[in-house]
Amino acid sequence: MRSLIRQRGKVDAISERQDTHQGEMTVSAVFAHTAKGYEPSMLGTVPATGSNIHLVTDEVLGEVLSPFRNQLFYLGNVYGSKPKLPLWFKHFGSGPDGAGEAYHLGIFGKTGSGKSVLAKMVLTGYARYHEMALLVIDPQGEFSKDTRGKPSGEFQLPLGGILKALGKQVALLSVRNLVLDTWALFEQILYESAFFDRLSVTRGENRELACGILAEKLQKAGVKLRDLQKRESFDKAWELLGNETVQKQFYRSEASRTRFQSVLAESVRDDFYSDHWVPVTTLFDANREKARPVEAALNWLFDPKHANRPVLIVDLSREQATGMFWNDKIQALVIRRLLQGVTTVAENAFQQNQGLNTLVVIDEAHRLAPREISAEDTEAKAVRATLIDAVRTTRKYGLGWMFISQTLSSLHSEILHQLRISFFGFGLALGMEYQALSQLVGGKGRAIELYQLFRDPHSAFDISSRQYSFMTIGPVSPLSFAGTPLFLNVFNTVQTFIKENNLSATNGAEK
After folding, report:
1. Burial of 188 (0-12, 13-18, 19+ CB in 10 A)
2. 41-45, 205-209, 367-371, range with the lowest pLDDT
3. For the chain, how big is the Rg over CA atoms in Å?
4. Which residue from 66, 102, 62 is spatially nearest to 85, judged by alpha carbons?
5. Residues with Cβ < 8 Å from 11, sequence gap 6 or more?
6. For 37, left (φ over 0), alpha (ψ -120 to 50), or beta?
7. How many angstroms separate the CA atoms of 450 and 29, rounded?
8. What whole-number distance in Å separates Cα of residue 145 and Cα of residue 55?
9. Sequential DSSP letters for 319-376
């Protein structure tokens, strides 16, 4: 019977005599009509027996929420119904369109649940505000492809064109033009590379000392970080490594130094330069086309002088790193540098009584802040600690974070506890994921039961009939002030999303 009611809206009489139909409603929003219009209220008494119940319509919602019409944003329709679910994504500053504080958001769901598309749609909701800046850290390059005008997947949202039509200045940085700008990063990346491996210096204390000493000696010799890729810089490094006084600082035993000297003498200098030095030092080369150091890029993003605050997307995908030394550990090092830079700028702005009013989007968040990390992976622990500290402290700076993840159970609990708004897509209804979801939503009530009815979008007969369903909690809608979860089916065509939000898209957006 319940299944029929959900699908058809009613059940026809069976005997036409003494039929009893029982329904259960959960109240999520109550409005009272006052002299000022409709205002949030509370249901003080149980409605009288015989009170009529009407299905809500777009017209009813439009009338009740008319004072907030300009703030409303639509991602889809009410789950199992036709009206659009009114949502609002307010910027983090003050004023009629501002929330007055920064929020942290989370979007969760297994692969194919529609979470990445939903994240891009939410991003456009915040991009409507001139006061708000956006930073996207994109480990897989998905946001970057959409911004370049090469969207992938079935829902090909022209993100770059929409941002440009909204007047947003968009800067797209990839590994190819993002310049690393600290000697500490050079030491760490050189340690991870094969440079010292080929010189018989194995991982551990000796290699760590060798990297630090080489960086220190190069600085004292007047070598600039931005010029490390030049041949004369490499020749200076090679000369320093051939100095026995330098060797004694990372190899105490004469036997170890003799072995190192032998390997160094037998090595082909030209091959070492092209195969092991250039791939590392190119990351620090400020002379590359459209090159921009990390610090300069962040200062540009957070500059309060922009009339319409910009968008910075940092593409850290492996595809962009051809010819460079790049792997997951180097990516983690760069992300940590970005996080530290963001936190530093936020602290400086706070000291000057300026709020950043910025949202930072983190894709693949479960890889950056996992619940469990092996004891040996010190760099992954450092990245996680930096991210957790940022989430704890930056809200007061006007800096909010949006985490996109395939999983709940493997994401660090501190991240989950800091979230104010969350969206949950298909794929979290079993095992550890279900337990984590139940804790966040507050038990195993009707909301969880309804969530369990979500269908796998890819079980539909064709692409046009796929339903991307989400449950959301938090102050994301004028209908959510009672604290109960809301449910929606996300628009499954780009044209509908653009039309319902009065958006447009121009050609091209990359700068």
Report:
1. buried
2. 41-45
3. 28
4. 62
5. 1, 4, 5, 21
6. left
7. 18
8. 41
9. GG-TTS---HHHHHHHHHHHHHHHHHHHHHHHHTT----EEEEESSHHHHSBS---TT
Cα distance between residue 129 and residue 90, in whole Å: 8
Q: What is the DSSP letter of 138?
A: E
> Pick from 346, 319, 344: which is nearest to 331 by CA?
319
Q: How many residues does the chain have?
A: 511
Per-residue confidence at 38, pLDDT binned at 50, 70, 90? confident
Q: 181: helix, coil or strand? A: coil
CB 239 within 8 Å of CB 199: no
Tell me the pLDDT tens digit for each residue of 437-464.
988 887 657 888 889 989 888 887 777 7
How far, CA to CA in Å, does 25 sit from each of 55, 82, 109, 486?
Answer: 12, 18, 27, 13
Task: Pick the closest to residue 141 from 132, 133, 153 (CA basis).
Answer: 153
Q: Which residues pair with 78 in a beta bridge?
A: 488
Task: Give the chain's largest Cα–Cα span.
Answer: 103
Provide the CA 109 distance to its chain's centre, in angstroms: 14
Of 261, 279, 262, 263, the residue nearest 198 (C-alpha): 263
Token pair of 231 as six digits: 């041949």
Pairing state between β 84-88 and 72-78: antiparallel
Burial of 220 (0-12, 13-18, 19+ CB in 10 A): exposed
State the pTM of this model: 0.88
User: 434 φ, ψ to 5°?
Assistant: -65, -40
User: Percentage of the chain with pLDDT > 70?
Assistant: 96
Does residue 487 have a pLDDT over 80? yes
